[in-house]
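Replying to the earlier thread about multi-chain prediction with a worked example.

Input:
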Amino acid sequence: MTARAIPLAGVVSPALHRLSRLAPLDAAAHAALGSAIARPQAFRARRDLVVEGRDIASAHLILSGWAARVRILPDGRRQFLSFVLPGDVVGLYDHHRPVAPSSIVTLTDMTTCVPPDPTMSPSLDQAYAVAHALDEAYLLAQIARLGRMNAMERIGDLMLELQERLAMSGLTQGHSYDLPITQETLADALGLTAVHVNRMLQAARRAGDLIWSARSMTIPDPKLLSRKVGRAQVRVTGA
Amino acid sequence: MTARAIPLAGVVSPALHRLSRLAPLDAAAHAALGSAIARPQAFRARRDLVVEGRDIASAHLILSGWAARVRILPDGRRQFLSFVLPGDVVGLYDHHRPVAPSSIVTLTDMTTCVPPDPTMSPSLDQAYAVAHALDEAYLLAQIARLGRMNAMERIGDLMLELQERLAMSGLTQGHSYDLPITQETLADALGLTAVHVNRMLQAARRAGDLIWSARSMTIPDPKLLSRKVGRAQVRVTGA
DNA sequence: CGTTGGGTTGACAATTGTCAATGGCCGTGG
DNA sequence: CCACGGCCATTGACAATTGTCAACCCAACG
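Result:
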């Protein structure tokens, strides 16, 4: 697949869509991103994209597919720390980072490319910085979710967050988006069991809050759901 | 209080102790830190040190006392995201950060100073970078704790983390350290209720894992406790 | 067709929360 | 010096949430 094998006319790469929204990109950034995106790397689902401690030089700009930062306890319990979506940048700041971060596993088939060097474009550097700040904000949201929300609220809150994030990449269709993961994966992100997630999803559908079928998640009334789950906004204040 | 009003002979500032351990500091860094520490700012307990969204220019190097990053849900539920201890640096990277981070509240009386400008010393810049990377690593640890550990494990894991962090500032005495917070504060950090924390602490004492009285926390056998709670190390790989 | 992975369900158990009351400690003010 | 009030720790009884285990269904796929 080459760079010009664009699925639909007028559809730009989700990664380009997102980065140019995080900071207005100059011509140099556009050019660099275009040529980087033209050389995609492919990964199969359930592979290690980044391994904790090793391979610190590997940075990725996600072009398509979902992955997750993960931590495994000695007895096998698994916790997903955050989802990694198209337009996300991972492993970029790990050079001057002496701490082993977490592993990242692909949840679906995935394509990535090498993120262009930010030193060549201040606007690109800015976009990376905003992306990194957002990463951290989502970690904080995850802590509040796991620490102080019940199962129903966790699910609603996360679904709203994903809606927001995917919207930044142009990957939503109205009130719906593609959610290509299993209930067990969701459970490992929410600190719950798959059985309980299943039951709560059914309750959410009965309540008209969430409708998930055929990989498509629909949030009929995001504002209402936000209020129901007591969601705190992740604001992006103007740069 | 001047820089040479050192409380005990041979005891350096915990902040200096920690930063010089994160990266070997050159003479310029030592000088700058010395004069910064000589101009402390004082805060009472239960005050806002940093307010989410506002006051982005305020950075602090913690000299003494405890604080916590906090998030409050609309209905009043409170979650502490991380503890802020002597030697920690907060708010430094928020300049080129367009995202409103979290509020920070003091848990005890506290003294801070303005963190010296890192551009004047590469070693200081490196120390800040390591401190920042550690911050993020502790956030990841907090997520795994809240998502996949039970109450007993959360308590043990956090107490071990605090022991490690305080040791870096020279604030431990053997297997003990000063823990100047209430059980309710602990509960808000662990995503539990104060009542349950109380019960689990008693169970931990009966088991000989943790002894907490008169503000002094003792971990008789850290290695054993690490194994019991399935603790994953936060490693600092050589810079 | 058989196998496999994911979703669904029921019965039951374990963990954690809620509510309410009590007691110790300590600082303040009479 | 003593009484009072406030904060924090502790306890008991009980409820709610979430987990565990096992079985079953169904669709996709080789």
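Residues 122-148 of chain B form the longest helix (27 residues).

Feel free to reuse this layout for your own posts.
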